Amino acid sequence: MLANKQYPLAVVVAHWTSLCVGRYIGVRGPAKFQHFLPVLSESTLSDINNNVCAATRADYMSAYNDPAVDPDRLCLAQQDCILVNMSESEKSYMSSSSLVLGLSPILLSSIGPTISEIGLLSLRRPILSLLLTFGTVGVYPSRILSYVDDSALDIIGEPTTLAVFLNETRVHDTVRKRAAAISVAQYVVVALAVFNVFYTSWQLGVATVLNFVCQSSFMPLVWTTLPAFIHLPAALALRANKKKPATVSTSESTRAMNCSKSLIRPSLTSEVTLHAMREEPIDLAALRPTPMLIFWRWVATVLSFVHVLVGIVIFSSLLFTMTTDAAIILLRYAASALACRLIIIFELGGIRWSRAQAQKNERMNATAR
Question: Highest taxon of the source (predicted)?
Fold first, then answer.
């Protein structure tokens, strides 16, 4: 059994997840050893794969094309053949690339958003927030069960350079004039970032071999989609924390009309509106921590730590990558994460600016009285 003292928890989780997505649901996945990553891995390993190990590769392809045969054993045979025939220098390159890929979950998580940041954005722009969780790849892991809470209230209260920058009348007027174009550009950039993440993960999974589940190609892709599910509990708890206005309806038709007018249309408008363009700030009462909100935030924090741990196991276990290809993969992930991070910073700056403007107006009204 895997679940014994010889195997860390992360290996058990990664192994059984890979089996579930690759075997038990009937998905065999693409054939291995068709090609490697293009920059250096292909030129380094193609001769061994296609010529030196041609016999074992042919046996593997025959087993793969036969639905009644499990190709895992012959996949391992081809894997071993390539490893045996690699030079020591090539093995050292592969070891270096494993180090680069193994560190990538830690590096990417440092760029990723916190649980409270995504929860705060999801209150008014849930679709954009969901796309951002896919594009940022990682989750910034706050200290587990920390006495100092990672609170959305603290995020709004923190002074930032961007919030001060937006407070300049000329800058804000420029943003206001181009608000629609900026909003569209945000969705386009995030969509491109998500596509880049998914395509990179798929290419990495197909062109490499996971050393503890040879036939699996889905683990990098599965890992990069998990942040959305990590953020989900805390985001839903924060949305549930919002105060709902009282409504009075006397008939089914009235209730239906109220739903269509008070939920659908404002939700769509709210989704595409920049936070810097909102005159009404987020209600602080919805952000005050409750036991349920703190619990789900802690759950998400623990899951973010597990996500990094599982990512280290998966990416450091990928075989047949050279250092250059590993660096390019990391840079492609980082490009998407940084693009999404810039959008998150801009929106958080808009939230702080909106709150500061509301406080300024309150002081002016109080002085006028």
Answer: Eukaryota
The kind and range of the H/E element at 319 are strand 318-319
pLDDT tens readout for residues 204-263: 999 999 988 888 889 999 999 999 999 998 888 888 876 444 443 444 444 444 544 444
Q: Give the integer Cα–Cα distance in Å for 189 and 170.
A: 25
Q: Which two tokens stand for residue 279?
A: 């005159």
Residue from 157, 311, 349, 167 nearest 230 by CA: 311
Q: Give the other-Cβ count within 10 Å of 44's Cβ.
A: 23
Q: Write out the DSSP string of 242-311.
A: SPPPP---SSHHHHHHHHIIIIIHHHHHHHHS-GGG-SSPPPGGGTS--HHHHHHHHHHHHHHHHHHHHH
SS3 at position 14: helix
Give me the helices (H) in 54-137, please.
Answer: 54-64, 72-85, 88-111, 115-122, 126-135
Q: How far is 89 from 87, CA to CA, in rounded Å?
A: 5
In this structure, the chain runs to a length of 369
- 209 phi, psi to nearest 5 deg: -130, 130
Q: How far apart are CA 1 and CA 18, in angstroms?
A: 16
Alpha carbon distance 51, 208 (integer Å): 18
Q: List pLDDT tens digits, range 142-198.
A: 766 554 556 666 666 665 555 555 555 555 667 778 888 989 999 999 999 999 999
Half-sphere exposure of 249 (CA within 13 A, CB side): 13
What would the two tokens of residue 250 be?
């006397």
Q: Cα(286)–Cα(120) distance, rounded to whole angstroms? A: 10
**What does the alpha-carbon distance between residue 106 and residue 286 come to, in Å, rounded to a whole number?**
32
Q: Strand 209-210 to strand 318-319: parallel, antiparallel, or no bridges (unpaired)?
A: antiparallel
- For residue range 52-69, list pLDDT tens digits in order: 999 999 999 998 888 777
Q: How confident is the model at residue 21 (pLDDT cuts 50, 70, 90)?
A: very low
- For residue 41, pLDDT over 70 is answered with yes
Listed residue (287, 295, 301) closest to 231, CA to CA: 301
